[in-house]
Amino acid sequence: MNLFLRLVLMCFVFVSAAAGLFFSRSADAIPVFARKYQTACQTCHWATFPALNSFGRAFKDNGYRFPDDDEVYVKEPPVAFGGEGWKKMFPQSIWPSTMTSVPPIALQIESNFLVNPKNNKGKTAFDGIGAVELLMGGTLGESFSWFGAAPIFENEGSARGSETHVERLYVVYSPTLFEKKGLVNVEFGRFEPRATPRSQHLSIIGTSRYLFSTWSTPPASNYTTFFPYQNGVELFGGKNGPKGNGGLTWAAGVVNGERSGDAFNPDDLDLTSGSGDFLDDESPFDMNNSKDYYARISYKIGGMGVLGGGTVEESQKATENWQDNSLTLSGFFYRGNAGFFNEPGVEATWHPSGNNFWRYGAEADFYWWNFNLFMAATYFRDNTSSDVTIDGESGSNFDADLYTAELRWVALPWIIPAVRFENMTPSYDVGDIDSFSAYSTDITVVIRANVKFTVGAAFADGNAPAMIDDETYQMGVKIGL
């Protein structure tokens, strides 16, 4: 089936399903921050959740507060821990704080139907309830805020799929400097580093994940640093540009790197497959003593100021709040250390450190009218401290260049198509993988402000390795409660 016929089939399924779902019953509840401010999801989201518009990014970078006069827009008065008079008595008293009076939790529920015509074990799958995620967040007084995400069910076809775990949970300290918040912030806990070219957690294409978040470099088999989380501390901030438009944002962090739960127990290695049991996930120590570090800098030309601009009323308008004619240019690097196998799949010896790697690149994020075009060049550079042998050949350099382009379009306020193109060109001393391309597309129908239906597909060309699905179709519903 050629690509044109595939897209025609997708559109037919999309129209049929959307017609049945558009008049379905609306979910009544809305997530945490929308409840706190009693505002629409679209105030912060770019056409559809989880993507953020300019106001949403400023809200996040201001410690999950409205950029200006936050207290004016809070509709649910916070619970006070101490009175204002305590501030005058400090340090002879405890500095007062507040906590939101509304429950600081929300749920995200996902259900999907999948088709993979090339899967010999089963070509279709309906996951029922595919995932349930607990989302948490709020502010603590004037300067602290927090956010968390804990999947409480993930349908992976096994009992392990229902395990509850904390994916992200972090605290942000946002002091007021020069009568402004957001200039400098401190984030610590478990989070997605801002070095990532584009956050997977904010992607509206659900059929596939970004390759820069999922590509694993053999023989290191190290995760690619960006997704889903890291443990550490990060400094970030920003400053509006001339006349309050655009501006500069920056971030730098030090993180644990390879997580303790990813460390192999050498006594349990399976030498035929190059795998083995993991060390105790509850251990606070990872397999090596090094720590990873990274930095990112961006400059936005035009559009809303990076720390907010205009008025909240403008951001709450019913339509076109996704429009923000602007261009953001960014650069980043990530430096880390990981373990590696010197002979994957043979008489493997696991080295707990010695794979010194870099991830760096440049990005352009362009918004015009109802369109958003994102482009990134990401470079993977892995160098092992000793040669790796695969099929009789040895070498120590494992490099790859990745180019990403993604186009999103608000066709109507409730219909958002998106398409993504990725090209990966590995250049390994041994075990070469041919250059390949991957394609993903989704159409999102926003049934209600917090309910959306998606239909999409993902393809890869014939050179793609086995780890990349070469043909998958997906329909799904996602609800935020």
Task: Walk me through the structure.
It is a single chain. The chain has seven helices and 21 strands. The protein has helices at 3-21, 32-37, 54-61, 70-73, 85-89, 211-214, 312-315, and strands at 79-81, 97-99, 105-115, 124-126, 131-140, 144-154, 168-173, 185-191, 230-240, 245-255, 264-270, 275-278, 292-304, 326-341, 350-368, 371-390, 393-409, 415-428, 436-448, 451-460, 471-480.
Structure described in brief:
The chain has 481 residues and is mainly beta. The protein is 10% helix and 46% strand.
| Form type | globular
Largest sheet: 16 strands, antiparallel, barrel
Query: What helical percentage do the residues reach?
Result: 10-25%
Element order: H for helix, E for strand: HHHHEHEEEEEEEHEEEEEHEEEEEEEE
Mean pLDDT: 79
The CATH architecture designation is Beta Barrel
Q: How many whole angstroms does the radius of gyration measure?
A: 23 Å
Q: Structural class of the helices, strands and pairings?
A: mainly beta
Number of domains: 1
Unreliable spans are 1-30, 157-161, 260-282
Q: Predict the CATH topology.
A: Porin
For the termini, the CA-CA separation is: 39 Å
Our estimate of the beta-strand percent is over 45%
What's the CATH class, please? Mainly Beta
Q: Would you count the extended β strands for me?
A: 21
The strand order across the widest sheet is 3-5-6-7-8-9-10-13-14-15-16-17-18-19-20-21
CATH-defined superfamily: Porin
Number of helices: 7
